[in-house]
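GAIN-B domain-containing protein
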Amino acid sequence: MKLKTGEVRSVPSEELNQGLVLSLSGDSSTDLSGSNITVRAGGDTPSEGTSVGLIAEISFPPEIAAIALGASTGNVNNTNINIIMSVFSTPALFFSPSLLNFSNENPGVNRTANTPVILLSVGGVILADLNQTINLTFTALVPDYENQTCVFWDEDDSEWSSDGCHLVLEDLETTEMYTCACDHLTNFAILMDIHDVTTEYTYNILSYIGCVISTVCLLIALVTYLWNK
């Protein structure tokens, strides 16, 4: 299954006022059929085993509640807010011409989204230019790749954009988990440079062969020189 389809959670506004954490866990980030979404208050300590099989996690700041309800001057208690979370296990639906051009201009390097793509909606309103950032933690689809960039899908330009997002943390022990901070809410992922191992291996072999040939030619020239001296 490529998509964890729009799971809706109705959250009391008083809980969202404390901040909220959504966690998606499962056996595989490429097959979401058996994955599960859990919700906890921002101040709560994660239960034991929560991080096991973690695919993605989103931390909402308390600021979200008032904005979602449009109730900066009203009472937000006793009201539920719908949170919709969808997750794509592959970025194939988000075609980016600029990434394709980059890969064409850099043989052996495929710059692409290397995490699941997370789609979020809170209260059905547009959330942008937040004072408190939304933190998103991702598990890389393929580990050990470089040049991580936190991005969102800009629907107007049909391109990935890093505006309003930045990388704040990576798991140095596993090189598999990364955390982004964004000041708005839309579709998120992390771009990485995925190198063609086969191409690099071929280049290394050719380099070794070139060195051997150069050494042999040098030895032949030296022997010829000494023989004729």
